[in-house]
Specification:
Blueprint lengths: L6 E4 L14 H7 L2 E8 L6 E7 L3 E5 L7 E5 L22 H13 L3 H16 L6 E3 L2 E7 L7 E5 L8 E2 L1 E2 L5 E7 L5 E8 L3 E3 L7 E2 L6 E5 L19 E8 L21 E8 L10 E5 L2 H6 L3 H10 L6 E9 L14 H6 L3 H21 L8 E6 L1 H12 L6 E5 L3 E4 L8 E10 L5 H11 L3 E9 L5 H15 L2
Length: 486
């Protein structure tokens, strides 16, 4: 039964990976009008389209006859040579928590400041030798730092503080040693940095675990009961798929009015890079599941999605899939758009701009991909994967284009509630929601889960004590695919 339902708009605080802008709720509400979508192909092998049926008219955008992707390079080139690499990750349990606690207790019991300094000099190196900090025991954690001055203010910032530097270290008077103690769930995985005098944000020099993000690496706290994730590590003992890189230019007419909304104006015919993963033993005559990833290069390099697909397929956890990794406009390389004057990712996912991106995906990218990689030109089904603002885009697209995507993986989205979506339900899609306890979007994602429980083909949520981090998204890609593709 159709009902008025609260829908979740993604207004997110992006810390370690990206900066997203809030969506305009008025613009978004006015765009919800699609009632059904039919996938069609033309009789020509070189032209294909997706027709979208609305209450008023039917519009079709057709890929021009003879349209071809331009092949830029494959996965063996230097440009993508590091897509399989990953840092060695070790749970922070090698160090003896009790030894560290005893060290601190004995140090602070010394009243003479000269003797305190000597105690650190005599014992510190042995304390940290061949060990990986922070010190962890059950849910208890000790972070330590050496090199502080008496006047220094040392803080901890990370997922556990939503990246506010507000966990203060104690600098032991008379020494350069500082520490702080905390308690976290035993299965937590949290990114963090040490902040010195509110200006120098540094990696923990005693922690070899690092998690890559859009702004570079963060130190990574891995609690003792955090599950292992072998799927995202490159495995030399299994068969591997092939990664092809393409370049695409949009033929759509402009949708956004530059005078009405100049901050999100996107001109036509801008270049978009697309990477296509083909499974081992790919055969064009076969039908495949298609998995479309927004923020494609990030999912390849930061999310290790290629490694995950290889592992899941080789171990028969999911069927063979063709994965399509779609970059933001302009064809910029990984994370360059965070450093340029223009944040192209936010531009095309903010306010009304997501409508241009949606039509580019539905009317151009999907038909072009599936006509190039399958003789039948018909996907077994499609999955759309997105994080943060792109998670909103994934749900937005599933509502406006019912039936195009059977599955949605939504990682760390949430925000402000809107109403009056009663004409959009039910939705014939299945959803896998990834929610971090330490993510600013936690409440919004839970609200969305509650709203969708009776109005879609199926929904589940995975909740973990993590934050808004590529470490979280990397480790949940496989779980989402396993749930949705079986």
């Amino acid at each position: 039964m159709k009902k008025s339902i609260s829908f979740i708009l993604l207004i997110l605080f992006l810390f370690s990976c990206a900066i997203d802008k809030p969506l305009d709720s008025t613009t978004t509400s006015s765009l919800i009008s699609t009632t059904s979508t039919v996938i069609t192909t033309t009789s020509s092998s070189t032209s294909t389209s997706i027709s979208t049926s609305t209450s008023s008219s039917t519009s079709t955008t057709t890929i021009p006859t003879g349209y071809q992707f331009k092949v830029l390079y494959d996965a063996t080139s230097d440009t993508l040579k590091d897509v399989t690499t990953d840092s060695i990750r070790t749970k922070n349990s090698q160090v003896n928590y009790d030894d560290v606690n005893t060290f601190i207790t004995q140090l602070e019991a010394i009243n003479n400041l000269t003797e305190r300094a000597k105690y650190v000099t005599d014992n510190y190196d042995n304390l940290v030798k061949d060990k990986n900090f922070p010190a962890v025991k059950d849910g208890n954690v000790i972070f330590i730092y050496k090199g502080a001055k008496d006047t220094d203010i040392i803080n901890l910032a990370g997922d556990m503080t939503t990246w506010s530097a507000n966990i203060r270290f104690t600098v032991v008077q008379g020494t350069d040693f500082a520490y702080t103690k905390a308690t976290y769930p035993e299965d937590a995985r949290l990114d963090y940095k040490i902040v010195i005098n509110s200006k120098d944000w540094i990696l923990d020099p005693l922690n070899g675990n690092q998690c890559s993000g859009g702004y570079g690496p963060n130190s990574e706290l891995i609690m003792n009961k955090y599950p292992d994730h072998p799927e995202h590590k490159y495995n030399t003992s299994i068969s591997h798929g092939k990664l092809e890189a393409k370049m695409m230019k949009s033929y759509l007419k402009e949708i956004i009015d530059p005078e009405a909304n100049p901050t999100v104006y996107l001109t036509t015919e801008k270049i978009r890079n697309i990477w296509v993963y083909l499974p081992h033993n790919y055969n064009k005559s076969n039908n495949y599941h298609y998995v479309y990833f927004t923020d494609g290069h990030e999912y390849i390099q930061l999310g290790k999605a290629v490694n995950t697909l290889d592992y899941m397929i080789a171990n028969n956890i999911i069927p063979p899939v063709i994965a399509v990794f779609i970059d933001p406009i302009q064809g910029v390389p990984l994370c360059k758009y965070y450093q340029d004057d223009t944040n192209y990712r936010s531009q095309e996912m903010t306010a009304g701009a997501q409508e241009t991106y949606r039509q580019n995906l539905i009317d151009e990218i999907i038909p072009a991909i599936e006509s190039n990689y399958s003789e039948s030109k018909i996907a077994l089904d499609r999955t759309l994967v997105g994080y943060s603002l792109a998670a909103y885009f994934a749900i937005y697209t599933s509502i406006l284009n019912k039936g195009v995507f059977k599955n949605i993986i939504m990682q760390s989205g949430g925000g402000t509630s809107l109403t009056n979506y009663q004409n959009t339900f039910p939705i014939p899609s299945r959803y896998y929601l990834v929610i971090g306890n330490y993510c600013p979007a936690f409440d919004g994602m839970n609200n969305l889960y509650a709203s969708f429980q009776t109005d879609c083909d199926g929904i589940t949520k995975f909740v973990s004590p993590q934050g808004h981090s590529w470490g979280f998204w990397r480790d949940t890609i496989g779980d989402g695919l396993k749930y949705l593709l079986n």
